[in-house]
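Why does residue order matter? Because the sequence determines the fold. Keep that principle in mind as you read this record.
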Amino acid sequence: MSPATADAASINPDEAAFFGALAGDWWNPRGTSAMLHRITPVRVAHIRELAVAHFGRQPKSRRPLAGLAALDVGCGAGLMAEPLARMGAAVTAIDAAPENIAAATAHAEAGGLAIDYRCVAVEDLAATGAQFDLVTCLEVVEHVAGRDSFFAALASLLKPGGLAVFSTPNRTPASWAVVIAGAEYVTRSIPRGAHDWNRFFTPAELAEALTHAGLTPGQPAGLGWRPGKGFHISGDVAVNYFLPAVKSA
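Structure:
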């Protein structure tokens, strides 16, 4: 486990410090990461569905990602990395905050999961020549500094024929109302100051960035919520959305 390069173009040291300070509470479902715990089951199910379809796996398999190498970028304390490992993938997970990597490693070890956690910048990992079948990047792109560097490195980490899945808030009045005003200031289900609305990507902007990096984006899917159903995959991308992308074989 090597420390993330502080001067890597994609690393915002202030963002890394902000989220690193939350590391000790990351696995508390009623703590500062409560919202992540609520949406993680929807994330996992959607990524599983996309991966099963893309790689031609059996939908009912308990380990549909067996034999695949997966990378979780901006892994935090492992809320997505652990489900990927349980689905059979050989998982590498990276984060810019050493505190998050320490918390993630301890939690995985306690659960008997072998996950390769590293505190490393995405550019530095790409420089090693590593490549993965599946890359997940969830609620991360809105926090990176050098965006061109970040997307170029991420694209190089994806094997030809591989699948990447992104999720991020949209930049709309609805997302400001829900994510900033509602979640950060009213319900406080997201730590105050966690987001800068001006740095959110619209689906078209994210698709353009991925295309520029050499990936082919697919169709976005929204993360919606309604009473009685809770969080679910939706056609409404106004607040938060998933965007898959593939790398030509």
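Residues 34-55 form the longest helix (22 residues).
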